[in-house]
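[step 3/7] fold_predict: job queued, chain A
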Amino acid sequence: MTGDSEIWTEKYRPKKFEEIVGQNDIIKRVQSLTNSLNIPHLLFAGPAGVGKSTLALVVVKELFGESWRENYLELNASDERGIDVIRQKVKDFARTKAISKIPFKVIFLDEADALTNEAQNALRRTMENYTSNCRFILSCNYSSKIIDPIQSRCAVFRFRLLEKKDIDKVVKRISQNEKLEIDSKAVESLFELSEGDCRRAINLLQTTASISNKITNELVDIIVPTAKPSDVKIVLEYALAGDFINSKEKLLDIMLKESISGTDIIKAIQKEVWNLDIDPEIKVRLTERTGEIEFRLTEGSDEFIQLEALLASFVMAGRGK
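[step 4/7] structure written:
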């Protein structure tokens, strides 16, 4: 059993449209375009690990069959993001004819939102001039970072985070093939930790399986330490009861013993706020305060000082202020 990152991700990458989980509406539309053997330029936008790159690869393999490698160029725009890449690699590949019954080649630009504005404008002209020879598939996390002239030339598909049933399907398929025993609570933990990112769920499963073939919720928690909801609830209940000292000490205990970052604590608090037995209006105000503290953390403020300030807000809320 290997623990090398990304091994299982590549091994269990879907080979056909039917094997891709989630995004059913998108897959149906893209499949119908592919079956017509004349796809437009495509723009896949959405979070990481939801199937954008996989779908692009499936499209190319369906179009070209065994000769897909000769008619396909993949570039990661976050590594090669300058205008020279568009003028040289992309343009040189786009201007040559396909070696196939399909009259065009395919260029896949992953993380296209990392391209500079100059590179995107050069790409726009390339897309316009070589449409007869080449189709582009662009993948990005934020479509708003892609200039409008490129978006207007593409069929845009917006991907969503995967649901629990989708992650369940992938995890169960892998566990059967790898002869793993995995309980339902462990599957649920993998989904919560991955937050709808299938690639992360597979990597977590692979890492856990490198320790034992019997995967339990406790083993997953060892691999990825997180703030337990029950512990976070105790911290918040102390604060709402006005016991700031015990609340602060419990929080420090969680952060030091479990090695959990302030950002992760914030996320756990944000989820747990809605399980507290307090007035809904207070929940809204505390959620707003949680968002403000999270912003300060991302800007580089001291984690513990900011979390103490958040606990102070809970104390004041508990007193009706």
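[step 5/7] annotate
The first helix runs from residue 7 to 11.
The domain at 229-318 is CATH 1.20.272.10 (Zinc Finger, Delta Prime; domain 3).
exit 0
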